[in-house]
Design a protein that fits this description.
single chain; alpha+beta; GIY-YIG endonuclease; five-stranded antiparallel sheet
Length: 104
């Protein structure tokens, strides 16, 4: 399944949903953390990037913030990208979606 997003960089398709700490790739890229709203939609609560998505999410310092913002489940969506691309993707998604967790 894919989560389609729209930013100033255009549209992106993130792969998921992955449960936290399970099927995440150990690759470079950007990620979205979502929860399911009462209207059964994925709401983006955090955005990030890393050279190793699996390690970053599994050991994230904002895990407590994520858990405090869960409505119905916690999911990760990933988009593999090199270092310069992943940083641009993260910044564009933070601006477009203004996630409740984390500040840059």
């Amino acid at each position: 399944m894919a989560l389609q997003t729209q930013t100033s960089l255009g549209s992106h398709q993130f792969d998921g949903p992955h449960t936290i700490n399970s099927t995440l790739p150990s690759m470079s890229g950007a990620y979205l953390i979502t929860t399911i709203t009462p209207s059964n939609q994925h709401a983006i609560i955090d955005v990030g990037e890393s050279h190793n998505i699996q390690n970053r999410i599994s050991n994230h310092d904002r895990t407590t913030q994520w858990k405090n913002n869960i409505q119905n489940g916690l999911h990760a969506w990933v988009l593999t990208a090199n270092e310069s691309e992943r940083m641009l993707i993260e910044k564009a998604h933070r601006l477009a979606y203004n996630p409740v967790c984390g500040e840059q």
